[in-house]
Amino acid sequence: KRLLGLLNDLLDLSKFEAGKMPLNLREADLKGIVQDVLNECEVLVNQKALSVEFQGPEQGAFLICDHEKIGRVVLNLLSNAIKFTPSGKGITITIQLAPIPSGRRRTDQGTKPGMFLTVRDEGMGIPEEELEAVFDKFVQSSKTKTGAGGTGLGLAICQEIIHAHGGRIWAENYSGGGASFTFLLPSQPPEWIKRVKEGCDEQSSTH
Asked: Among 63-72, 100-109, 196-205, whose mean pLDDT is lowest?
């Protein structure tokens, strides 16, 4: 089962990297996506007696995205938080509507409507030198020495999905303990994403 999961992750990652994983873009509520993932993980949360606090805008957090793929990102981040949070501790998930950089780089000028989602755990944190590398293929934080394993591809796939939507994802530590993973997404996909999707559709229809 573990080998099959690794092979599937490798296949998906190679498709993302080659630009051959089309996005099924439609309107979705990020709050609803998170709630679905919370329901899916309820048994795991209860097994460790974890408390999960979910904060989001009352009016919802609507955006144009691939519902299934963004759900996969949220599931991966929450699953990691569950793994690394000691029994009886807490996890916080926050959605914030806010302007985000209009370009694909942090230094780009200008903003556009968007949103941030943060998953924060109360684990031991991530070594500072590993904060960037955790998104690389086959890289696992030394935290996995506690017994929580994985394929080493989950966060790399998350990064590809978020980048494909014109967003960014990063990890941070907290001085009081624990780590967080945050991604930002535009409310409306950039024009280049629409062109990529149309190109994929046209290409697939010719085969």
From this structure: 196-205
207 occurs within a structural domain: no
The tens digit of pLDDT for each residue in 112-147 reads 899 999 999 999 888 888 888 788 765 555 554 444
Helix, coil or strand: residue 17: helix
pLDDT in tens, 163-179: 889 999 999 998 778 99
Burial (CB < 10 A; 0-12, 13-18, 19+), residue 18, is exposed
- Taking each helix axis from N to C terminus, what angle separates 67-84 and 30-40, rounded to the nearest 10 degrees? 50
38 within some domain: yes
Number of domain units in the chain: 1
CATH, residue 51: 3.30.565.10
